[in-house]
């Protein structure tokens, strides 16, 4: 027996809602109407200010449910989605809710039938409202106003926001903002009503206008700078942005004014990033003479712009040993030859002592130009940066490709970086061979100018290590050339 | 050099931080700013679901203030814009400045909280102490209850890492590269074993804190949103199968909440060891899709790897689920009125929501193709793989050109391809 299947009442009713988001009122009214068996087609639901149904009876006089009428049934899922759907701006929402409630009396599991049109519609309304609430949590932007109450010792901070929701969600979201900004004094103004929190009590206010909200906040400059900086121009995905942040929200968000220029500049910025990393040297030079000519013209890093000359490597073009230093110094720059200054002389002494013939080795530098700063009339040596070394690698590699040494001896950290492309610690890298890609071996030791800077015990210790390295190189070279 | 202003520092340090993909603020413990020891309440809340407060034109969500404390660094990792040998402008915030900036953004509802990372200055321990100090100022001096994500430094003292977890909602340590060889080559100062050791330490702290919470109401929380990590894709030669394998090991051994993939993007002042060309962005997307398959669709890492081609790469033109279905066609068609949930999840075009709907709806009616159309986004993709009351795909499932029929048009995939 299902007594409510057939309507027992035949009159029509208009229900005028006291507020567009008053779910509790709807629920109370709907319960009574279901108990009286008023079918959905006999009720018109009207919002305040909305047009009532002219052909229905007057509102207010509802039938009294019989005392023995069973309470209406509704599934948990229905109440869950109905509470949200009631906040939707669709004028048909209350009629939809009532129709579903009516149908639930004979089919309590109706909400599980996701292919039913009414069920799909209420789920859709619920989803729209949840999304609108979520966007409100996300896109409300407060601006700081300092309020000077007469008589108060100091000004009080008041945060005010202007927001335009799509649905009647303002009151329903008061709790969220209260939980989030408990110790702040804030107001959210919207065309659907306002919220005011003073740190203790929440008040509701009538609808407001955009002009009621403050027009600016200096912190927005910082925020815009952050927005522009955190954006990666190498990855432009405008569709993904628009899907989550539709244009209709943009007008009340300070950062969105930047979007057009960020997009317009993105490809140019990415191209700049790539070209900044790239050094297009073209084809490798085919002879050492060609390298010599090219390095004199090289201006790919700022060192080339200084008043100096490129210094080319020196030695047999088929040497088995290649000795690589850091960069030419003052005297090398003037003479145009590598390792002729104080460090070069020290190197010669040690090579002799170790039994290595400098004349049989190809001696060159990692960086081709002398880098210096002026101190009075003197040009003072400056170490090249890692970036400068990396750019200049092209030349040392071109020389290595032509000379094809069996063993490369790198003097100092700059030379080691020039050969390996990464920074290594001399103390850890010395004393063992490092295989290079073309099958030759790299040995690393300190730069002789380092020995010149040391004094006393430290100098003795480092000299001993340097000599040991050279001795090992001589032995290894003998094996390789045997 | 003249002193940088806050806005200049923010520009440099936000720019330097943007190569970290994660901006998530979800999955942490519920916190409200109402009430509390000081009576008047604090500032900030977290309610489980993260909120994206804005979206940048790169399609990424902006949920947290993501900055570095400093971009000075004593390390020299090739893929990193902040490495020692890079020529970028350098700047440095004090912990106090970061805390102030976080609060002034948070009070205006720009953000959910802070994601703080840093270049290594002086020593790993010193850097870690500075990061913790910023979190401490927020939590203790300002009663900030919003989200904090701290990047931890694997080389730092485990005691400091532990302290970070007490203030933060989430901690993360980047594994950086999918293979040890790649790490040795591109990040010479880092050590894979050390990174794993630190992740293991964080994992056990999380488990201990959860366990303590069960017994004592006021036991301190430790990183309630868990730990995550990031891998750079396309800077070394690791293929998708390597990456998926590594991710599955990370999920399994360290209880990670998320593994992020960041397509290597050309950085200004790049090191000579790196490729200049970026990997296609879509590759990163395919990896995330495979990640989803493992986390929500019940695929094992082996099954995802089976969807890769002979070169170990996932196809770029179709998603990994479709690739798997095309490779294992004998599994289909599935009857939507009978097939179990875990099998329906394997139908290309059916997501978790659609499968739940189908299972709820089929208790009420025998489903026709039309019903399935109402429950899913697009029936065209689903049709070859299912049977319904009035539908059998017959020869469709076995057609040789099925892949071509289902693959989206190439230009729709990547509008702004390089």
From TrEMBL, chain B:
Coiled coil: none annotated. InterPro entries: Aldolase_TIM, DNA_rSAM_put, Elp3/MiaA/NifB-like_rSAM, Endo/Exo/Phosphatase_dom_1, rSAM, rSAM_sf, RuvA_2-like. Its cofactor is [4Fe-4S] cluster. The keyword Metal-binding applies. One of its GO terms (molecular function) is metal ion binding. It comes from the Bacteria. SUPFAM superfamilies: Radical SAM enzymes, RuvA domain 2-like. This is Putative DNA modification/repair radical SAM protein. It comes from Allopontixanthobacter sediminis.
